[in-house]
Design goal:
With about 210 residues, the chain is α+β, with helices and mostly antiparallel strands. The chain contains 6 helices and 9 strands, in the order H-E-E-H-E-H-H-E-E-H-E-E-E-H-E. It has helices at about 1-40, 50-60, 80-85, 90-105, 130-145, 175-195, and strands at about 40, 45-50, 70-75, 110-115, 120-125, 145-150, 155, 160-165, 200-205. The protein has a 5-stranded mixed sheet with strand order 4-5-3-8-9, sandwiched between helices. Helix 3 (about 80-85) packs across helix 4 (about 90-105). The longest helix is centred in the first third of the chain and has 38 residues, at about 1-40.
């Protein structure tokens, strides 16, 4: 009986060691997931941030057809105060989350993230021409250019800037991040140039 009892005790010890190992492994995985979520999430809006876009966009660009081109589109609310002052920041957050969620389901939008400026959204989009992308972005800017409240419809004067992403953007990570941030800044510049202009959407022109 003693050998059997010794084997039984050994099996129990092994099972306990395995259980501890599995438990610690799950805890590490959970901790990694939490850290990654924090690193890739904009705390203001609980949306993906630019760091996440840097990781996600290259994979999406690799899946483009030869006839398709990629662009960065920056959407910005020109009249944020019209929403935040009377209704608080919560309505602004909900409006941006709604816009991001709905855009993510559109087939021409590859990735979406919160911009660094308040009330802005950065998207990686695709299209067969600048004219097509401009039309799609302009339609989205018009659709999400206002917020509904119990009292009224609040116009936000949504603007948008667009910058092309060239095929050469698929490169080593450091070079890609520099190139991608440059494209975002160019789209932001184009967006800012629409302020006061007749059109609410502008494509960046390096000339």
């Amino acid at each position: 009986h003693y050998p059997l009892r010794a084997v039984g005790i050994l099996i129990v010890i092994i099972l306990v060691i395995i259980a501890v190992f599995v438990s610690r492994s799950r805890m590490r995985q959970q901790h990694t997931a939490i850290v990654q979520h924090m690193a890739y999430t904009d705390a203001r809006y609980n949306l993906p941030n630019i760091a996440w876009l840097e990781e996600d966009a290259p994979q999406k660009l690799k899946g483009l057809d030869e006839s398709e081109k990629a662009y960065v589109a920056v959407f910005a609310m020109e009249r944020k105060a019209a929403l935040t002052l009377p209704y608080g920041k919560e309505l602004l957050v909900k409006q941006l989350q709604k816009m991001a969620e709905q855009l993510s389901h559109m087939d021409w939008v590859l990735s979406t993230a919160a911009g660094s400026d308040a009330g802005s959204l950065i998207c990686v989009v695709k299209g067969r021409s600048e004219a097509e992308v401009s039309r799609l972005v302009e339609g989205a800017a018009a659709k999400y250019g206002y917020a509904e409240t119990a009292e009224a419809r609040v116009w936000l004067h949504m603007r948008a800037g667009i910058c092309a992403l060239e095929a050469k953007s698929i490169m080593d990570k450091a070079s890609w991040i520099d190139y991608f941030h440059s494209a975002i800044e160019s789209a932001i510049t184009a967006c800012q140039e629409t302020s006061g202009a007749t059109g609410g959407v502008r494509i960046f022109d390096a000339q």
